[in-house]
Amino acid sequence: MVTIVIGTQWGDEGKGKVIDYLAENHQIVARYQGGANAGHTVVVNGKRYIFHLIPSGILHPQAECILGNGVVIDPISLLSEIDLLKKENISVTGRLWISANSHLTLTSHKMLDQVEDQYRGKGKLGTTGRGIGTTYTDKTSRIGIRLGDFLDADTFREKLTINLQMKNYLFKEYYGKEIFQPEKIIEEYTPLRERLRSMVIDTAKYLNDAIAKGKNVLCEGAQGTFLDIDFGTYPYVTASNSTAGGACTGLGIGPTKIDRVIGVAKAYTTRVGEGPFPTELDGDLGESLRDLGSEYGATTGRPRRCGWFDSVLLRYAAMVNGLDALFITKLDVLDTLPVIKVAVAYQVGQERSLDFPNGYRALAEAQPIYEELPGWQSDISKVRKWSEFPDATRKYLDRIEELSGAPITMVSFGPGREQTIEK
Ligand code: GDP
Ligand code: IMO
Ligand code: MG
């Protein structure tokens, strides 16, 4: 069974928790896109882990983890995560595999990402500064460096020299910054080579062999549908395909091998970074949602923007990802609210639309049309069966399911593994 788990909103839906929960019954957990911009939180027995590159299944000893060809790898970030896990007596030896075709994020990519975003001025995207867009740019410009290239010292030097010749022109002439000396970068990264070598393989072959043997594979998406480079709120998006299709190209698995797609959605909406967000709540209510949900970025610590659940987004996400199921998270965050709103449609100019607007301007002008539902105003943290949810909680779930067009099969009402119910 091959299952894809994706974010249906603007990231941070709780994918880390969901992957950790589902990984118990899987032999392989594989990341297919993004890089260290992701921050996936897993809480086990009260201990919190935040994964940026390592797949969120790593805490399950039976699970092997894969970073596919579609992922961009910052070796400094990856090795520091490996070291942190080692301190907790969790070993990745013989169970973490990285694609030789994945692209390398270097110090120069991170620096250029930060400089570029500053230079955008008012049009800044608010990137994570992790060198994601600049690494994918090099990949599509055919001047990127693959992890396999890095393993051979001469190839690395050759590719890096060409890459920096082009990038240094930008740094010096356009941005007026210091240039990067290839020797400096070689010196910085050479000690990391041998630590990575034994993990670098043809992950597409490895995965397809595993699938042929009947192993269960969980494909872990990073970011979310509306940060997808094609379907997101462009240009306020990340640089990869975070939607379900990205799992095929980012891992080398044919579409015929995919059995199900699970979408993760918060019971409300958040966004970190710039860009349109129709149901955003300014003022006290937004702040109180941020406090109740501890909505601060797991990678950058930035406060997340908060707002109501938006079923227009969800319907679009259900469509472009072909969702089979919805996993609703953070339901407990709404426990104290007397009234909960859900966007059912948008008003765009004179038109009322059930569809996600086509084009940036229409989206920026879209006004959400809300439906109000009564809150349950009780603590749901002790609930162990679906039938134990208060009536108002079940009505809320039924309504967002109806509006979203995908069945809710699981609900999370706390960060811990055990705070999860299957319908
Ligand atoms: P991801 O990027 O999609 O993995 O999500 P993040 O880890 O960035 O953000 C989700 C945050 O919500 C983390 O701090 C989780 O520990 C927390 N979380 C996940 N599920 C729940 C839940 O059901 N209730 C509460 N209160 N917190 C949750
Ligand atoms: P997870 O996997 C939330 C946002 C950034 C910025 C935009 C582009 O934890 O859900 P980038 O550094 O990717 O070029 O930034 O995308 N962003 C995320 N927002 N969760 C994430 O990952 C994100 N990864 C990137 O804030 O707006
Ligand atoms: Mg996150």
Structural write-up:
The protein has 423 residues and is α/β, with parallel strands linked by helices. It folds into two domains: 1-98 and 202-331 and 402-423, Adenylosuccinate Synthetase, Chain A, domain 1; 103-194, Adenylosuccinate Synthetase, subunit A, domain 2 (Orthogonal Bundle), CATH 1.10.300.10. Helix content is 34%, strand content 21%. The chain is built from 13 helices and 20 strands. It has helices at residues 15-23, 75-87, 107-119, 132-140, 147-150, 153-174, 182-197, 203-212, 245-251, 284-292, 311-321, 360-365, 391-404; strands at residues 2-7, 28-31, 40-44, 47-51, 64-67, 72-73, 96-99, 103-104, 200-201, 217-220, 260-266, 269-271, 305-307, 309-310, 325-329, 339-348, 351-353, 367-374, 408-412, 420-422. The strands form five sheets. Strands 9-7-5-2-10-1-11-15-19-20 form a ten-stranded mixed β-sheet, sandwiched between helices. β3 and β4 form a beta hairpin. α3 (107-119) packs across α4 (132-140) and α6 (153-174) packs across α7. The protein is globular, with a radius of gyration of 22 Å. It starts with a strand and ends with a strand. The mean pLDDT is 97. The protein binds guanosine-5'-diphosphate (GDP), 6-O-phosphoryl inosine monophosphate and magnesium ion. Residues 7, 11-17, 39-41, 43, 298, 329-330, 332-333, 412-415 line the site of guanosine-5'-diphosphate.
